[in-house]
Description:
Elements lengths: L1 H4 L10 H12 L9 H11 L3 H5 L5 H8 L4 H4 L8 H15 L13 H8 L4 H8 L4 H8 L6 H7 L5 H8 L6 H8 L4 H7 L7 H8 L4 H10 L4 H7 L7 H7 L5 H7 L7 H8 L4 H10 L5 H9 L4 H6 L17 H4 L10 H7 L5 H9 L5 H7 L6 H5 L6 H7 L1
Amino acid sequence: MAWVFARRKQQPPLPDEALIRLMTDLLDPPDDVPFANYELFEELFFADWSRVLVAVRHPDPRVRRFAASHAWRDDLRFLLTDPDPQVAAAAAASIAEQDRLMEPADLPGQHCHAFWWVLQRPLSQALAEQVAASDDVEAIQYIINNPTLPPDIVEMLSHHPEAGVRARVAGRADLIAERVAALAADPDPAVRAVVATRTGLTGEQIDALAADPDDAVRTAIATHAYVSEGERAILAGEADLDPQEAVRWARSENPRLRRRAAQRPELPSDTVALLAADPDAAVRANLALYHPGAPGELLLSCFLENRDRTKLLSLPQFPESGLSRLADHADPVVRLLVARDPDADPAVIAHLTTDPHQSVRKAMARCPRLPSDRITALLNDAELAADAAANPSLDWRTVVEAL
């Protein structure tokens, strides 16, 4: 059920009008649906929590009652004055429940919706100690993000044997200075790399991390420590990057600034050439994706690096000529590009109709540069007949005569 309600990648959210109709239908599901209405609403909300914001304004008070048991505290205030007394009472009860400290008895015995829901709530000392002392690393990492985690548990987890746990602790904004200093000297580079992304590091800590033997740590400190407050605001999306400032950023030693600069579509040609040869792969990828003047070869190289392939192929400057040289590439997705080459040797296209990968065979069967005799032959191939029949170069007169 969660799979049915889930929002797919790159799929826009359902419009509010559609959600309202869906929620109305869920109130009284058909008899052959093996779920109660409250279970359907739980799955609907769990798949996308923003849907609760639609539910709290639904015209049917029964839907608003379901929303009252799922919405966060700030959204529930809207329901405290609901004209339906049952909705208002449910909202008040939900706020009181959300303020209640979670105890060990509240935590289900296995991972489920309710398990993670409890660990997001205010944690009692007893429950925090229980989770922290368990072998459930996933749950431990989860509670580290909880702002109500007691300081002594944060301190204890900063010494946890799992580096992933210590790294999660290193990302907490409320760490005391002594704990930051200890984590900055952690034996695991993954922990030190997280510390290197923090603000407020001392000069000595910055210098030590900049000289770290691990490349990821040095990169992290270089891309986060040497950034002004104004630059941080731009990187966080709180302010816009001026075109002239973008040119300066494109020449910065900080790859974070260069990555952001590469997203500006109005960069001059000399700056585009500079960024196209940038040693940082993310800089080159951003330029390829966002700048209309990015060289076609740059787009192809980013494609070969398996970066945003679908979007790159949709760009008008993606190259076509010369792609047949990729006919022997190990990646079948790359071999598919040969069909886009207007100058591809027909013999190469014909050879790829026997490619080990089905998607390549089918693409070549539809390619208009496939030799006519091979197209006709594929009409008798059970797998590729439909693709060959869709080939725009198919000579139907010859086929009809043969029949």
